[in-house]
Amino acid sequence: MGYTVTEKILLAHSDADHVEPGQVVMVRCDVVLANDVTGPLAFRQMEKMGASEVFDPAKIVMVADHFAPAKDERSAILIKRLKEWSLAHGVVFYDQGRGGIEHTLLVQEGLVLPGSVIVGGDSHTCTHGAMGAFSSGLGSTDIAYCLAFGEFWQVVPGTIQVTVSGEKGRFVTGKDVILAVIAQIGAGGGTGNVLEFVGAGAQALSIDERLAVSNLAVEAGSDTGIFPADEKTAAYLDGRTDKSWEPVHSDPDASYSRKLAIDLDRTGPLVAKPYNPENVVSVSEVAGTPIHQVVVGNCSNGTMTDLRQAAEMVKGKRVHERTRMIVVPATQKIYREAIAEGLIDILVEAGASVSTPTCGPCFGGHTGALAPGENSLATINRNFKGRSGSPDACVYLGNAFVAAAAAVAGEIIDPAEVVP
Amino acid sequence: MIATGKAVVVPGTNVDTDILYPGIYLNIDDPELMKPYLFEGLDPSLRDQLVGDTVLVVSENFGMGSSREHVPLAMKASGVRCVVGSSFARIFYRNCINLALPAISCPQAAEAAKAGSEISVDAAAGTVTVDGREFSAAPVPPFMLEMLERGGLIPWAQHKLARS
């Protein structure tokens, strides 16, 4: 019996001589990531372990993005600790103004290679599966162990093969692909599995869109969402890394725990209603819902592709008087590129507030919290109760076209009605 | 390892990490200081039931969402000795095992338990006893059992360092 891409990567990063779903293996890490929330907690646990040295400073990256820019003294202390620890151990540290949101940043910087293993103290570390890596979120004690020993225990997951076919409609994006998957299998439907995306429809997705798809794999309960590397991956990495890498693909006789099909010809723009990402409906089913805040950005949809989509919707228009629009370019590089391309001017002219890269408005940490009774349409990944502020607010998830269209209309609306 | 305590029933399926411990309190890194925010988005009054040793009784896909270890850290600091439910989200489950907080899948026991029920969990034997009635739990894989018995990933790491 052959192996899936995930099984091959785990096998190559362990001492096991074979792997199969359900088996527990120790897996070696190529990149260990943490942020200002999970890093300091991991450092505490590492101290308790009695470990004073890291396994390999060149394989560790720390990013201040959650409470950065520091919203208060307590947050400032965490960021300071992250920075001092990084300096003391000689690991890469991205401070505010120098990096951006961790997942978009690491991919952009060429730190994520196909066939590699990346773990992060952040559940959306699954994002890196877009590059053909095994990437997964872990808690801080796990991360402490990874910092000290460069490995973690992992239950070899099964693989759910998702075959994407057809062509995207005008306002359909990667976000809709993953929302369609979550709608099919539910918020716990991927537990104990990875999602593997194959087929012409998957290969047609750009890296930016693949990032959005993989980012929400954890919202189906999956360990990660993986796109086997192809020519798009190779083109993206060209000039970003001088390390060699080999694409890893599943064997033709690999075994899958489940197979799903997503037909893009039959998929329109989708929205996930509160308070669970599995509550997926078509835009038309929730059209007319008043929207008080729109957020375009975060680790799922803060790329140039997303900013272009948002700018296209609001160009020459005004954000509705009922609505606040917040745009968060995911990294400093994206921010500058969006300025150079004129996107930021279009967005600001329309009445959007553009933020420095931060996770703040997504997780309800700061800069963009919701009041009771308010509705948000956001390109983020979670619409849990209280996710972005008050537990009596509602978050709807959608792609950047859908979000920006709602900003203009002040309510959920088919983007085709805003830009015919 | 055997864990015992009074049942605290956490209602609902797909209970996520954000309602268990809202994001705004993530800039706290001392477990003692996390305790006042456990269940904050779900039902803060559940905290009043966390007196002495307790066992949380939960449903399906408990702990979905974030990797925030604040959730099981605040639970442990509040006297929670075990979590019994139908199923658990992956990262929450890992975090529990790493902190030596058994997360046991036993839907029948979870169904039978009421607030205040006396619960005893024997992870190695794979049994959950609720007010004297014994139920069979899904077996805990040997690796996780060993992790629980050693006291979690911190003693595991200490042991590894001592050997090297």
Give an overview in words.
The complex is a heterodimer of chains A (420) and B (164). Chain A is α/β, with parallel strands linked by helices and 420 residues long. Chain A folds into two domains: 5-263, Aconitase, domain 3; 271-418, 2-Layer Sandwich (Aconitase, domain 3). Chain A is 32% helix and 19% strand. In chain A, strand 8 (158-165), helix 6 (174-185) and strand 9 form a beta-alpha-beta unit. The model of chain A has no long low-confidence stretch (mean pLDDT 98). By secondary structure, chain B is of the alpha/beta class. Chain B has one domain (2-163): Aconitase, domain 4 (Alpha-Beta Barrel), CATH 3.20.19. Helix content of chain B is 31%, strand content 21%. In chain B, helix 4 links the parallel strand 3 and strand 4 (103-105). The relative contact order of chain B is 0.18. The chains are: A alpha/beta (420), B alpha/beta (164). Chains A and B meet through helix 2, helix 3 and helix 5 of A and helix 1, helix 4, helix 6 and helix 7 of B.
Strand content of chain A: 15-25%
- Mean pLDDT over the full residue set of chain A: 98
Q: Please, what is the CATH homologous superfamily of the largest domain in chain A?
A: Aconitase, domain 3
Second rung of CATH, namely the architecture of the largest domain in chain A: 2-Layer Sandwich
Structural class of chain B: alpha/beta
Largest sheet of chain A: 5 strands, parallel
Described by the principal axes of the CA atoms, the overall outline of chain A is globular
As residue ranges, the low-confidence spans of chain A are none
| Number of structural units classed as domains of chain A | 2
CATH topology of chain B: Aconitase, domain 4
Lateral strand order in the biggest sheet of chain A:
4-3-2-5-6
Q: Could you tell me the radius of gyration of chain A in angstroms?
A: 20 Å
- Which spans of chain B have pLDDT < 50 for at least 5 consecutive residues? none
Task: Report the portion of residues of chain B in β strands.
Answer: 15-25%
> In CATH's first tier, which class of the largest domain in chain A applies?
Alpha Beta
Largest interface: A-B, 55 and 44 residues
Number of helices of chain B: 7
Q: What distance lies between the first and last C-alpha atoms of chain B, to the nearest angstrom?
A: 27 Å
> Total number of β-strand segments of chain A?
18
Main sheet record of chain B? 7 strands, mixed
CATH names the topology of the largest domain in chain A as Aconitase, domain 3
